[in-house]
Each structure stands twice: as C-alpha cells, then as structure tokens.
Amino acid sequence: MTLHATSAPSATAAEPSSGPRARWLAVLAHAPRESLARHARALPALDFEQLRAPETGLAMVRGRIANRGDRFNVGEVTITRAVVRHRDPGAGAVSVGVGYLLGRDPERVGWVARFDALLQQPRWHDRLQAELIAPLAAETARLRAAEQRETAASRVRFFNLQPDAAA
Amino acid sequence: MTTNAHLADLGLAWQAPVHGAQQAFRALLAAMSCPGRVHALPAAAIAGVEPPASGDGRRMSIAATAALLTLLDAESSIHFAGCARDNAALAAYFRFHCGVPTLGLDRAAFVHARGMDADATLCEAMQQGSDPAPQDGATLVLDIDGFGGVDTASTEAQQPQQLRLRGPGIQAETLLTLNGSPPALWQWRAAHARAFPRGIDLLLCCGAELVAIPRSTLLTLESPCM
Fold this sequence. Notes:
The complex is a heterodimer. Chain A is of the alpha+beta class. Helix content of chain A is 40%, strand content 24%. Chain A is built from four helices and three strands; from the N terminus they run ααβββαα. A three-stranded antiparallel sheet of chain A has the order 1-2-3. Chain B is α/β, with parallel strands linked by helices. In chain B, strand 8 and strand 9 form a beta hairpin. The longest helix of chain B is centred in the N-terminal third of the chain and has 17 residues. Classes of the chains: A alpha+beta, B alpha/beta. At the A-B interface, strand 1 and strand 3 of A face helix 1 and helix 5 of B.
C-alpha cells in the first residue's frame, strides 16, 4: 500500500505547519519509546474509537539538494499510521488524533494518536503540555545535545585549510 | 481548536479491513459474473461498516458503501450525483477511508446516485470509454428502493420496472424487477447496448443486496411501457 499525502485527515490542512499542534506532534513522534510508554500507562482508562486501526505502508520521501532546486524522490520509507476519535464524557467535545511514525510500531503510533486527541481537548490540554510535552521535548533535546557533543569531539580541524581553526 | 465537522461524525469502515474487502470483492465478482441476479453480501463483507448520510439525512445503502470501499482508492475517482453541499459528508467518508478524490461527472471513474436521479442525462454525461480503451467507461452505483416489485402499484411513477436480460453469464434470460429507478434510464441503456464495448456498468444496491449489470448484458424494458 502506498500512502499519499492527500489522504491525511483534512483537519490538519487548515493549520499552519508550525502551529502548536504541529509542534506537539513532532515532540511525540521523536519521543523515546520507553518514555512514551511510561506516560501512556499513567493515563486513566479512556474511550477511544479507532477510525483507522494502526496500519503500515510506504510513503515516498521527497528532497532537494541543499534545500534549493527541484524536488526529487529520495526513496520510499515505511510508515505506520493510526487515527482515533475521543468524545469527552462531560463536555461532549469531540477530537480526532492522528499518529504518523517512521517504522513499524503499531502500539507506539496508537499512543501518539491518543495523546494527540487528548491534547486537543480543553480538559487535558494544559496538563499534558506541562506533564508530557515539555518533559519529552527536554529529554529529546538532551539526547540530541549529548549526541552532538560526542560527534563534535571527533571533528577534525585542518589547520592549513582553515586558518581560523588553528586557535 | 475545533475538529473538522466531518471527522467528528465520520462513520467507521470494516472492523477487519482485509477480510471485509476480500469478501465484498468476491461478492462483486459473483454479481458481475451472474448479471441480473440478486446477491446478498455476506456478513463479513459488511461487518462494522457505518454508511455515510447525505445532507438530507438519507444514508447510502450498506451494499453500496461496502462496494465503494472495496473498489475505490487514491488512484480512482468518485462523483456523487446531486448537490455538492449535500454530498460533502459522503465525499469526506470515502476520502478518509480510501483516499479517493471527488471529480466531475464527466471525469469520475465511479458515480453514485439515488435511484430516481439516474436518468439518461446522467448516464450520457459519464465516461463511456473508447474502442481502444473500453475500461475507461465509468461504473454507476445506484441506490434503489428494492428488488422484486409490488403488484399493487397505483400510479405509473410507482410501477416497478421489469427488465428482461440476456447475454454473457445468463443461461437463457433473466427477469429482474426493480423499484425506484426511472424507466428512462433503462430505455437509454437498452438503446446504448449497440455501442459495446463502450458504455457504463451498473451496480444496483438496496440494503445489503446488490445486482450487477455489466455493459455486456443485453436488456429490454418490459414494463412500464413508454
């Protein structure tokens, strides 16, 4: 099965790609699996309707050299996706959560979709932003910084070619 | 943050998508192979399917919904006859579950209509295919009121439509009685058979039953006579 970008739920089409929802979806997508699992287990039992049960397929990744020039097909990647719907028992507000992750991990993509649905609910939004998104974002940033420090330590400076690096 | 209104009420598709689609496809194959015979979709082909409703509150039949879920995908196209605003929920349902785009009547590979809306004008406007590419001819999925007419019909508009069918897949001939389709549709179809292999294929649906009439079938409208 080949996924097409046009088949994503149209709810996201109206929002800019840098909005708050895009930011928390990015944090959830990059969150380490164990952290996500821990937060998912801490949730109380809630009702989620599966609009799309987790399914795995291929998507074509497009790129541009140095972010300039014409787009071309880089290659196909395996993606797992899921869509869930949550009705708030009290206020009756309906939210639809999506999860799109690289790889084949139906359980993990289910967690992402559920958190996305809850983050759109007024009852859960502030609490989850503080207790879930902020710590996950910090943890991802920490891991990235550590990786960059490790990589930087192996950087080779060419004193002849880069006079400013001779310091 | 508001959720897209269509997603909030979106109906579900099969509980078991692979099994459901396979069972539905088998039923469609059987129906196309034995034209004019009423086929009931097995339970597995409709389990979990929640047909979408148009703006006037009328739901698509579960047979039409399952057939379209099976046949549509991102490389196909659909057109819903009638007012676009009324059919927005139908388009959203198949857009979500199948990734299928909605196109104009003259370009869509599949057209869905309610019985009495399918007249000769609609059929004529659909893609008929060409002699080198007959597969480009569109398929009309029609939701009608029933199979097997009621004997006591008071007005001509309510009279059941009786068709006599011959051709591939039919031993000698089959008599098919329908409720809720316009006689003009069958007059057009009877006359248009000489354009074979060009033409459109028909899928008549009511409840969980369907009848297929591929373009290879020869038919005459027995009654009402017009």
